[in-house]
Amino acid sequence: MIHQYAELCRNLLAIPVVEGAKSPSERFAGAEETFTIEALMQNGWALQSGTSHFLGQSFGKAFEVTFQDAEGKQQDVWGTSWGVSTRLIGALIMTHSDDAGLVLPPRVAPVQVVVVPIPPKKNDEESKLALNNALDALVSNLKDKGLRVKVDDRDYVRNGAKYFEWERKGVPLRIELGPRDVNGGVCVFKYRAGKEEKETIPLDEASSKAISGLDEMQDYLLDSAKERLAAKINLMASYDEMKEVLEKDEASEYNGPGLYLVPWKCDAANEEKIKEECKATIRCYPTDVNEAGMWKGKKCFYSGEDATHMALFGRAF
Questions:
Q1: pLDDT at 177 (0 to 100)
Q2: Helical spans, DSSP H, in the chain
Q3: Which of 196, 197, 199 is nearest to 181 (CA)?
Q4: Which value, to the nearest 10 degrees, does the dihedral of the CA atoms of residues 191, 197, 200, 201 take?
C-alpha cells in the first residue's frame, strides 16, 4: 500500500517522497513494522505523509478476532492498518507554494484554467458581441478537452485585482482575452509556475496548447521538488556536523539544511539521545539504499559500532 501512496504523491501531487521503514521507536504502537513515505518541505524539514502498518496477530489476540483456516482450525487474524490524511494538503502547500501564494499542480487543481475577459469600451456593441462569441467558443473547447474552467467576468473588479486573486489561489493557467486579441485571433496564456513570460496563442490552438502546457507545468513542479529533495539529502555527515546545524534549525527558516542519510546501528537509547540533543529524529530506513546493503562495512555515525541500517535523520513537522 505504501507504494500506492508514493505513486499518488508523485503522479497527482507532484511531491517526490522517500519510502522506507520506521525504526522500532517510531513504529505505530503494537505494530510489528511500520512503513512510511517522507516528503521534504521547502524549509528543509520532513513531513511524514502516509504510513502502512503490519500489525501481526497482536490485535487479533487482544480483541479475540479469529478466522477458520484451511484445516478448520481457529486462528488469530493478521492485521494491517494504513492511510493518508489531510496532512497531504499541507504537504502540497508547503512543497510548491511561493511568496505570491498557493501553487497547485494541474492534476489536482479544482480550477485548472481561469479565463479573464477584458471588456471593450462602453457602447461598442460589435466588439462586445465578438468577444462573447470568442469567449464561448474558447471555454467550450477547453471543457471539451476535459479541463476544469472558470470564467471571471466580474465587472466590478479590475483586471489587475483578478490576476492577483487567481495567482494567489494557485490556479495553474490564466487566459486573458480582450477585443484586440479577438481581432487578431489570439489569446494570452500566463502559467502560475514554470514559465515566467506570457504567451500569445492562436485561439484555434488554445485548448490543445493548454493541455500540453499544463502537463509541462505538472512535470516542472515534480522535477523541481525532486531536485530540491536530492540536493537536501546530506550524505555521510558526522554526528557533530549534523548536530551543529540542526540544533539551531528553525521551522521558519527557508531553505534549511535538509535531511541526513547516515550509517546507523539501531539503538533506541541513542536515538532518544539524538532527539534530545538536536531535535532530529529518524524519518525512516530508506528502502532502496538498505535493500542495496549500503550500510554494510560502515560504522554508525553516532556510536562508532558496526552499522545495521542506513538511516535518514532530520527535523520534522
A1: 98
A2: 2-11, 58-62, 87-96, 125-144, 159-168, 179-184, 206-231, 239-246, 268-278, 287-291
A3: 199
A4: -40
Taken in order 123, 124, 126, 132, the sign of the CA dihedral is negative
Residues in the chain: 317
* Contact partners, residue 102, CB within 8 Å, separation at least 6: 93, 168, 169, 170
* pLDDT given for residue 252 in this prediction: 67
How far is 272 from 281, CA to CA, in rounded Å?
8
**Cβ(46)–Cβ(39) below 8 Å:** yes
Q: Please report, as a single letter, which amino acid is at residue 62.
A: A
Kindly report, residue by residue over 258-307, the tens digit of the pLDDT: 999 999 999 999 999 999 999 999 999 999 999 999 999 999 999 999 99
Residue type for position 270 = N
d(CA 266, CA 263): 10
- DSSP-derived pairing of the beta strands 149-151 and 113-117: parallel
Spatial distance between the Cα atoms of 172 and 213, rounded to a whole number of angstroms: 10
Q: Say how far apart CA 103 and CA 105 lie, in whole Å.
A: 7
8-state DSSP, 191: E
Global confidence as pTM: 0.93
* Amino acid in position 78: W
Q: What's the pLDDT tens digit per position in 184-196? A: 999 999 999 999 9
Give the torsion through C-alpha atoms of 139, 142, 144, 145, to 10 deg: -170
Residue pair 92/15 in contact by the 8 Å Cβ criterion = yes
pLDDT tens by residue, 41-63 = 999 999 999 999 999 998 889 99
> Cα separation of 195 and 250, whole Å?
31
pLDDT computed for residue 123 by the predictor: 84
